[in-house]
Specification:
Blueprint (H helix, E strand, L loop, with lengths): L15 E3 L15 H13 L2 E6 L2 E2 L8 H18 L4 E4 L2 E3 L2 H8 L7 E2 L7 E2 L2 E5 L9 H10 L3 E5 L11 H8 L3 E5 H5 L4 H12 L5 E3 L8 H15 L1 H16 L9
Helix pairs in contact: 1-2, 8-9
Length: 264
């Protein structure tokens, strides 16, 4: 039996987009088994997500699954979704860690990006790609490097900006980054699942209108409750329209390569 969590709205009336998840089994620190993968996706659908981007880690020395392995896992999980009759579109992306592998790929514009299409492994790349930084130190010349991606028609999407200590409370710096890259806060962080400091940073970003979207960053079934709690927190504090913007409107703009306007 899988865990069902709802947030006071029928899930079949919702059409959310999850830009960050680890639902492909056996590739990184996310889903471990096919059963885990299917259960996690059932949970996301129950929360109102109609489109999910699987974003396995691409991190040197830790998790660096090869493209054929990712494609095989995507095909396997997609088949299981169809067999289960789950009305959900599973697309591909990657969580690119800012390291030597990423920088080498980025030189020739080969970093894994969000990808969509009826056959995702052979589908089309979008202009947007997800990336993460070391939590204690931002890359040198960050704004200049992010702007260079924009000049090449690409859109950097920054995962969990609430984790980066050099950005805590730095409104001017956050605004500068947000003019060049899309900032996507983890829903579970709003509930405190990642510690009080990250909760404060996540809430600051959302309340002050300094992030463009939010996402599940789902790694395991147990993550579902804090993800749902984060959604409920946004709905209660900022209203259903803001939740719709952060989980549906803005993610679609981001995947299209457009940087959404910040509400704040």
């Amino acid at each position: 039996m899988f865990l069902t969590i709802r947030i006071s709205t029928r899930f079949d009336t919702l059409d959310y987009v999850d830009l960050h998840s680890h639902v492909l089994w056996g590739l990184d620190d996310g889903a471990r088994t096919p059963k885990d993968a299917l259960e996690m996706l059932q949970i996301l659908r129950s929360l109102g997500f109609r489109t999910v981007y699987a974003t396995p880690h691409q991190k040197q020395g830790e998790f660096l699954p090869a493209a054929p392995d990712i494609a095989a896992r995507h095909a396997d999980v997609t088949r299981r979704l169809q067999e289960a009759g789950l009305d959900l579109d599973l697309h591909l992306g990657a969580e690119n860690f800012w390291d030597e592998v990423f920088l080498e790929r980025a030189q020739c514009d080969q970093q894994p990006s969000y990808r969509k299409g009826p056959e995702v492994p052979s589908g089309r790349d979008t202009p947007a790609f997800l990336l993460e930084f070391p939590v204690m130190q931002l890359p040198p010349r960050l704004i200049e490097q992010l702007f260079a991606f924009r000049l090449r028609g690409r859109l950097p999407v920054l995962a969990h900006p609430e984790r980066y200590v050099p950005l805590w409370g730095q409104r001017a710096r956050l605004e500068q980054i947000a003019r060049t890259a899309a900032l996507v806060v983890d829903l579970a962080a709003l509930e405190g699942a990642h510690g009080p400091e990250r909760a404060r940073a996540a809430r600051y970003l959302v309340q002050e209108g300094l992030c463009h979207a939010v996402a599940s960053d789902l790694h395991q079934v147990a993550d579902a409750r804090p993800v749902a709690a984060g959604m409920a927190w946004i709905k209660k504090r900022l209203g259903p329209a803001r939740l719709q913007a952060l989980l549906a409107d803005a993610p679609r703009q981001i995947v299209a390569g457009q940087l959404p306007d910040l509400p704040g």
